[in-house]
């Protein structure tokens, strides 16, 4: 199941549907700076942050001994505020600091001075925690490093993280609450630096979540996520250019298709799925998914020698035109009422598949290129990219990790350095189209820099054919003229939601059958 996300104390003031915004580290720094320029003191933001953390703790757990690990920066300042507030509420609190209090500066130093009790070292923390009779009865606040950490944990912090992770593995770990992001997780990339980070039961972040809260493996370390409003001025945040989003209905609901009482099937688009002559089930899955998603008509264009297979096995409402060779396929697509095509599921790794992709692009059709339609260009991706630059149609590429590496080998090699979000953005810009980089943290990017991260995909989607269904969902929305970036995001979200509602035992065929129930609830979800 997906981890819980909570928007604490309402949405950030004045930002409307901005609950789907994600702040990069640069965005977060800009928010702090612009807030200061507009008269909101850093001390005020820090006090509000500490209050939000303390409130989240009190709401979830009974009073127990608390160990607060405060770092040398503003995260550490938040930790001192939490310590003061919890102590005032009657919780037994100890604070530990890896440096002398005199080494602190700015708002962190001010809040350290407001803490009148003793401050131990991290070596003291190691001793106190490891000698505790029942460490699972403690609560630990990780206020060491924030989202901007770029170096692996070292020294006593590393020792603490190793011990805590071991304790978690044997069921004797304190409750861990992390401030902003778990220490050791890169806020932008979601990387666990050098493979070691704190593992939280709860993470409290401020204003907006960070990419690392949704990208793996960082997401697996965050626990429950609370996003707290700490008083960033709404008009200040409105001036910050946000291009990263959490893929929820708030991102695309206003663009989602609504049926016209006077409409007809062609107004909802005629989508063509290329059918292969060997793996015939893949195209059928994509076609059914597109129909369920609302495409007015769906045809599976099949080679002459495979016609009998498809004609006897598809749902009655699916058309099965046959063709001979590339010329025959082009003739099918040349009908102006056929606006969109899905190419790749079961299409075969052969030159004919590449030629059909290029033909669809040359005819300016909206196109979803998946599976074999991607891998076939492994030897020379520039052929595909050149055609993508020339087409007037909207295009979505849907690679999983292996296919991404075939089309964008240089970017794939940089994933450990740049992160999944950044390389997906670069891939979309290079290809000149929307790219859906699939996985448990599916990332969708547009050429203009917009990107969204999905977090609702359950592990049950890791089964054959689910990618074919996703391609059909995307194509079905594009056929209905939903803007391409929003169509890609919506399709990915519905894909995950269908799987969540079905539960265990899921196979690809179940996804399209679940869609009507999910669509019925769409208004509630938006």
Tell me what you see in this structure:
The chain has 526 residues and is of the alpha/beta class. Helices cover 43% and strands 15% of the residues. A hairpin with a 5-residue loop joins strand 18 (443-445) and strand 19 (451-453). Helix 12 packs parallel to helix 13 (351-362). The longest helix has 19 residues, at 42-60. The chain is elongated, with a radius of gyration of 26 Å. The two termini are 21 Å apart.
Which descriptors apply to this entry?
526 residues; alpha/beta; Rossmann fold; UDP-N-acetylmuramoyl-L-alanine:D-glutamate ligase; 2 domains; eleven-stranded mixed beta sheet; eight-stranded parallel beta sheet; 23 helices
Question: What is this structure's SSE topology?
Answer:
Elements: E1 5-8, E2 21-22, H1 25-37, H2 42-60, E3 66-70, H3 74-88, E4 93-96, H4 106-114, E5 119-120, H5 122-130, E6 139-143, H6 155-169, E7 175-179, E8 202-206, H7 219-222, E9 224-228, H8 234-238, E10 244-246, H9 249-252, E11 270-274, H10 280-292, E12 297-303, H11 307-311, E13 322-323, H12 325-333, E14 338-343, H13 351-362, E15 366-369, H14 372-375, H15 381-390, E16 395-397, H16 401-407, H17 409-413, H18 415-418, H19 420-431, E17 434-437, E18 443-445, E19 451-453, H20 466-479, H21 484-502, H22 508-520, H23 522-525
Parallel strand pairs: 1-9, 3-4, 3-6, 4-5, 6-7, 7-8, 8-9, 10-19, 11-12, 11-14, 12-13, 14-15, 15-16, 16-17
Antiparallel strand pairs: 2-10, 17-18, 18-19
Helix pairs in contact: 2-3, 3-4, 5-6, 10-20, 10-22, 12-13, 13-15, 20-21, 20-22, 21-22
